[in-house]
Automatic annotation (TrEMBL), chain A:
One GO BP annotation of this record: proteolysis
Protein name: Predicted Zn-dependent protease or its inactivated homolog
Annotated Metalloprotease TldD/E C-terminal domain residues: 216-436
Segments crossing the lipid bilayer: none
Gene Ontology molecular-function annotations: metallopeptidase activity
Superkingdom assignment: Bacteria
Keywords: Hydrolase, Protease
UniProtKB/TrEMBL annotation, chain B:
Domain Metalloprotease TldD/E C-terminal: 232-473
Gene3D superfamilies: PmbA/TldD superfamily (3.30.2290.10)
Keywords recorded for this protein, A-Z: Hydrolase, Metalloprotease, Protease
Domain Metalloprotease TldD/E N-terminal residue range list: 19-83
UniProt family annotation: Belongs to the peptidase U62 family.
GO biological process, one term: proteolysis
Lineage, broadest ranks: Bacteria, Pseudomonadati, Pseudomonadota, Betaproteobacteria, Neisseriales
InterPro entries found in the cross-reference section: Metalloprtase-TldD/E_C, Metalloprtase-TldD/E_N, Peptidase_U62_metallo, TldD/PmbA_N, TldD/PmbA_sf
Cellular component GO terms held in the UniProt record: cytosol
Name of the protein: Predicted Zn-dependent protease or its inactivated homolog
Length: 441, 480
């Protein structure tokens, strides 16, 4: 239904173009029920129905764009969009020719629509409250359809529609001691939820033990896939961006120059084919199935948006304007996850990291905190929960000389983020065993 | 538009204990240049409404961009359904909660005045500053931008409450990167994340010093390129307002948010080392520390007349002479915690529900000039302009980095140092506050990017602060 609405809107916009004009449309919409939980109960429940349309008007090498909210009332939206076109024509008179404009002319229409198999959100909430009975559950359930569409006046149409849920939650023991979990899908499974909740409750017993406070220093550490996700997300902060590379702000400059390398165990790619995000971007360029970024520790490539491609005379690989990964894939290693604690011996079991930032971007040196269920391990056995610690270390070290092993199993981490709208990004990552991690506070 | 929406809302027959509508319309436009070329012109017009229902002790909301009568009716019904569905399993029973029924109008500085927004001339200004920053072959990247924001809000209740608010803000920015021999240094005007963001009109360009900034910022980037790393060790630390804004934000603002203290944010943004019993008795900082929530400082980024639950906004002292007094909690959190608070129940837009947020959170000026602050340092570092921030989920152990540092030795400013950073613990850091600068050292900063909440929300906040001097801080520089 939304797709037909998008078609009708597109038809109205393109029919109103003058002969020399071109236009592209990018639609991003959702109808999401958001339910927050605290102390095992509902804190805030509601629904958001939103639909944003970005209209780009092109005349020769001049172009301007405006994003508007659609009302879902067709005649109102058509009328409003005619006004937007008039405003954009006026604005075209104020802008210069854009030497870096690159329009997609290789028309490739695609469609992926999945009918909703979700139960009413009220039922999901009832299942969650029942499963969490007596526990200090906190978190959020987001559920409902998400839509993304592209159209241009040359005739290309792309549509991506899924109905999914994402339940991001924690069970608290006391203070800041908690077990963190998250899951997502297109079908709701109350039994699986109960199982996950029961497993988390079992871990709470470990968190109830007296906590250990570590002195600053260097420690062996095992990082779960979620913690590894925090590390590699720092590389995604401009690191994979070709534009940031050219402007000398990428944290991977030294890697690209061959001055440093990661461990040969480390291979990273943008694996669109295995991810959840649409295979097209906002300007209608189709993403390749996979783009190698780091291969066996060496620089292998970057994410190149159409604008960067034009500026530096490179081929684009379908990256969005931000040139960030949306489906990051790290190759697995050979350490069975079940043997991770044994391989660690004595050191830190790090379930989650938190609030990472740069200490020295050019050196890929980062800082951040441990969070949630982190433990002190001795002889392969969990001994005590850890009080939170700050680390400060180089990614080239952590994922280079100090990387002892990666797990054979990987986890698909679905982003629970919802700034502006529900995220479709994901990461597929193994756990990592580190010879040392520098704690500073 | 807002008259039409109010009429449509008034025509609904809610049949619930309480119902409100919050309409938000935001128009944005950003002019930007990079490396001598204008970036694509980006505009947006975002509008929609959220209907909130309190009924039989339950709370529910529904937000929609369909502002027709049918669209608002559907939103009302969905909000009512959530109030019904959640009331028997909710954290808080709203049956005893009395929401505000406000009435009035707030017009921020310049919000109803014409804005001399000449795209060509302004783009030329940005291009001129961009060109002026190309002073050396080592300058490898330059960018400048100017954003405008016009906001129109309406908050109405089913039983007659009605508040209209209008705001205008301008956001100038300029960033320059220098690079040589494998080392890159980036310097900016007020920060790489839009630290100069204020309400008002074109006067903000002069206040931010945009004209002439290109060359100055580029010169400082080159100074940093040639500078040694910041030394490591325990020493005095003089923070300028463009770093103080971040220090206030992370280690006073967030820990004082009452919803964090109540546990709402433990799955995402985190909890707080502050507990309810600390208010009125806890010595948060030294006697020099005076912190206010001040929505009435009208040119600051988050000034307003009412918050998004309709509570009238007025200045409140949160910390006085170091003593913790009042949390940052809106009316609902105040009712849940049985604590006083402020009018800070805020949403980032029409499509997110209000939660406790910072707004304008400021440090009140002291009595020392910048020269006096510097003269009081035997060995230390001056740090300017935040570039890195990290703090634990209880808002205690932090590590922050700045763009620009200057050594201070025997009461005098010395050479530039690069990659200056420092770390500490909130609970003890503010007690090391040795002196606070006077009004002449104060600057009004802010950020458009304060993230928090589930679902996630980015809100605008303001931070006005003088320069502040801290003793015995753990300072460090770059590289391994």
């Amino acid at each position: 239904m939304m797709r037909q609405y998008f078609e009708a809107v597109a038809e109205a916009v393109f029919a109103a173009l003058d002969e020399a004009e071109q236009a592209t449309l990018w639609l991003s919409g959702e109808q999401s029920d958001f339910i927050r939980f605290n102390h095992g109960k509902v804190r805030q429940a509601g629904q958001v129905k939103q639909c944003y349309l970005t209209v780009q008007l092109v005349l020769g090498n001049k172009h301007v764009a405006q994003t508007v909210t659609l009302s879902h009332v067709l005649d109102e939206d058509q009328h409003m969009l005619l006004g937007v076109l008039a405003d954009l024509r006026d604005a075209l008179g104020d802008v210069a020719d854009d030497p870096y404009l690159l329009l997609n002319t290789a028309l490739q229409s695609t469609q992926r629509s999945e009918a909703s198999r979700l139960p009413p959100a009220e039922q999901m909430v009832a299942d969650i409250v029942a499963a969490a009975a007596g526990a200090d559950l906190v978190g959020i359930l987001a559920a409902g359809p998400v839509y993304m569409g592209f159209a241009n006046s040359l005739g290309q149409r792309n549509w991506h529609e899924t109905a999914s849920w994402n339940f991001d939650w924690s069970l608290y023991s006391h203070g800041d001691k908690a077990v963190k979990r998250g899951s997502a899908g297109t079908e709701w499974d109350a039994a699986a939820l109960q199982t996950a909740m029961a497993e988390a409750r079992a871990q709470l017993a470990l968190l109830a033990r007296p906590a250990k406070t570590l002195a600053p220093g260097s420690y062996r550490a095992y990082l779960t896939p979620a913690a590894v996700g925090e590390l590699v997300s720092m590389l995604n902060w401009g690191g994979f961006s070709e534009r940031e590379m050219r402007s000398k702000r990428s944290s991977l400059l030294k890697l690209q120059a061959g001055e440093v390398s990661f461990s040969p165990m480390l291979s990273l790619s943008e694996n669109t084919a295995a991810g959840l995000a649409p295979a097209f971007q906002a300007e209608g360029f189709i993403k390749p199935a996979e783009v190698a970024l780091v291969r066996e520790g060496k620089y292998a490539g970057s994410l190149v948006s159409p604008r960067t491609a034009r500026e530096f005379d490179l081929p684009s690989n379908g990256a969005g304007a931000g040139e960030g990964s949306e489906a990051l894939d790290m190759a697995a290693g050979d350490l069975p996850m079940a043997e991770a604690l044994k391989a660690l011996g004595s050191g830190l079991y790090v379930s989650n990291l938190w609030y990472l930032n740069w200490s020295d971007r050019a050196a890929a040196r980062i800082t951040g905190m441990t969070r949630f269920a982190c433990f002190w391990v001795e002889d392969g056995q969990i001994v005590a929960p850890l009080n939170v610690m700050r680390f400060d270390d180089s990614l080239f070290r952590l994922l280079g000389s100090e990387l002892e092993a990666l797990t054979a199993e990987r986890e698909l981490l679905v982003d629970a983020g919802s700034y502006g709208g529900r995220s479709s990004t994901s990461q597929r990552l193994p756990g990592a065993l580190l010879r040392s991690l520098n704690l500073v506070l | 538009m807002h008259e039409l929406i109010e009429a449509r809302f008034r025509a609904l027959n809610p049949g619930v204990d309480f119902c409100s509508l919050r309409y938000v319309e935001e128009a944005r436009e950003t002019l930007a240049v990079r490396q001598g070329v204008a970036e694509p012109l980006a505009r947006s017009l975002d509008r929609g409404a959220m209907i909130t229902v309190l009924h039989r002790g339950g709370y529910g909301y529904a937000a929609t961009s369909d502002l027709s009568s049918a669209g608002l009716q559907a939103a009302l019904e969905r909000a009512r359904q959530w109030a019904e569905a959640s009331r028997s399993q909710a954290v808080f029973d709203f049956s005893g909660y009395e929401p505000a029924r406000p009435s009035g109008r707030y017009i921020g500085p310049g919000a109803e005045q014409p804005l001399d927004w000449q795209r060509r001339e302004l783009t030329e200004l940005l291009l001129a500053e961009d060109a002026a920053s190309q002073i050396d072959a080592r300058i490898v990247d330059r960018a400048a931008s100017l954003g405008r924001l016009d906001v129109h809000q309406l908050y109405i209740t089913h039983d007659g409450g009605s508040v209209e608010q209008r705001f205008r803000a301008l956001i100038p920015s300029l960033v320059v990167t220098a690079y040589a021999d494998g080392v890159a240094q980036t310097r900016s005007l007020g920060g790489q994340y839009n630290g100069y963001c204020r309400q008002g009109g074109m006067e903000i360009l002069a206040q931010a010093g945009l004209a002439g900034a290109g060359q100055r910022v580029a010169e400082e980037a080159l100074q940093l390129l040639a500078a040694p790393n910041c030394p490591s060790g325990s020493m005095d630390l003089l923070l300028m307002p463009s770093q103080m804004m971040l220090q206030i934000h992370e280690s006073i603002g967030h820990p004082l948010e009452l919803d964090r203290i109540l546990g709402d944010e433990r799955n995402y943004a985190g909890t707080s080392f502050v507990t309810p019993e600390m208010f009125g008795s806890y010595q948060y900082g030294s006697e020099h520390l005076n912190v206010t929530y001040d929505p009435q400082r009208s040119n600051e980024f988050a000034a307003y007349g009412w918050d998004d639950d309709g509570t009238p906004a007025e200045k409140v002292w949160l910390i006085k002479q170091g003593l913790l007094k009042v949390p940052l909690g809106g009316a609902i959190s105040q009712a849940r915690a049985s604590l006083p608070g402020v009018a800070n129940s805020r949403a980032c837009n029409w499509n997110r529900a209000p939660i406790d947020r910072m707004a304008n959170l400021n440090i009140e000026p002291g009595d020392q000039s910048l020269a006096q602050l510097i003269a009081g340092v035997e060995r230390g570092v001056l740090m300017d302009t935040n570039v890195s921030w990290s703090i634990d989920d209880s808002r205690n152990k932090f590590q922050f980095g700045c763009e620009y540092g200057r050594l201070i030795e025997n009461g005098e400013l010395k050479g530039v140092v690069k990659n200056p950073g420092y770390r500490g613990i909130s609970a003890t850091f503010w007690r090391a506050l040795k002196a606070v600068g006077d009004e002449s050292t104060l600057d009004v900063m802010g950020t458009p990017f304060c993230g928090k909440g589930e679902p996630n929300q980015v809100v605008r906040v303001g931070h006005a602060s003088p320069a502040c001097l801290f003793g015995a801080v753990d300072v460090f520089g770059g590289e391994a």
